[in-house]
Amino acid sequence: MDISVQTGTVVYDFGPERGYAMIAEAGFTGVDWNISGSLNRAKFPTAPLQDFCIFEQSLDACLSHYADDLLQIRRNGLRIVQAHAPFPALIFMRPQTLEYSIGLYRRCIEFCEAVGCIRLVVHGISLPQNDDTHTPASIDALNYTLYESLIETLRPTNVTVCLENLFTESPRGVIEGVCSDPHEAVAMIDNLNARAGKDCFGLCLDTGHLNLVHRSFRTYVPLLGQRIKALHIHDNGGVTDQHLLPFSGTVCWNEFCDSLHDIGYTGDLSFETFAQTRRSRLPAELVPLFLQTIAGIGDDFRTRIQA
């Protein structure tokens, strides 16, 4: 069970050579690779859908683009425990973005297989607010279009695509997004695996998102059980998606550890705490201290989950 952390923002701020060394020196043994940063999301809503994401290009071009990162990851003895694909999958005002994103995700799967990363987090599509052109059924169909389009690429690989429990912001505040309902998540994952003829879909459990929609680990985790293949561990105050280190917000961490212990979770513990390791938030000399604290919390969680 590796303790890992997202590569953003540490690698973004310090560069691959220093960034990956800092992660390893803090005590992490793995990374959640933010290949999501390859998509220029500022341009995504309006620009022509070409030439602004590396995953439009060949697999060899992608490997060349990330060669320095791969060198530093391996030099520092880190394992790529999971990767985060570009998002969003769909801009509702531009329906053609879904087909474009599917092309990116197919290449991401091939890329993950090539670098030995067995889990790829791909955000699903949630019902938009104040939009009477979509219904729960139409959103469900879009999600099946998205994920079923990846099956042929997934079948010959060892990669698992992980759906994520998401939220949606509305004028009324945060409300549930795709896979926030555990029954919906179970049904979608099981249906997709049945259609694939192998277990190549699972869930990335996001602790902060679960807290935002006021669902508890003790009711969510047992229903998902072994379908939980990856984690995004972070905290918030229950109002906005803050991506804080644990014990900085209102997430119940005893319940988190107990629930994963009870289902016999054996995956990795990956932290999505990038908001508290930004150079814009911290003096550079304090970033290693925060990383060490997060890694230490991971060690404690691992002990409790494996007890």
Highlighted features:
about 300 residues, TIM Barrel, about 40% helix, eight-stranded parallel beta sheet, 10 strands, alpha/beta
Topology:
Elements: E1 3-6, H1 10-25, E2 30-33, H2 59-65, H3 67-75, E3 79-84, H4 96-115, E4 119-121, H5 136-148, H6 151-154, E5 160-164, E6 167-170, E7 173-176, H7 182-196, E8 201-206, H8 207-212, H9 217-224, E9 228-232, H10 253-262, E10 269-271, H11 287-306
Parallel strand pairs: 1-2, 1-10, 2-3, 3-4, 4-5, 5-8, 8-9
Antiparallel strand pairs: 6-7
Helix pairs in contact: 1-3, 1-11, 7-9, 9-10, 10-11
- What's the name of the CATH homologous superfamily? Divalent-metal-dependent TIM barrel enzymes
Placed side by side, the strands forming the largest sheet appear as 9-8-5-4-3-2-1-10
Q: How many angstroms does the end-to-end distance come to? A: 13 Å
Give the amount of beta strand, in percent.
5-15%
CATH architecture: Alpha-Beta Barrel
How many domain modules? 1
Taking the sheet with the most strands, its summary is: 8 strands, parallel
Overall residue-averaged pLDDT value: 95
| CATH top level assignment | Alpha Beta
Query: Which structural class matches the secondary elements?
Result: alpha/beta
Could you give the order of the helices and strands?
EHEHHEHEHHEEEHEHHEHEH
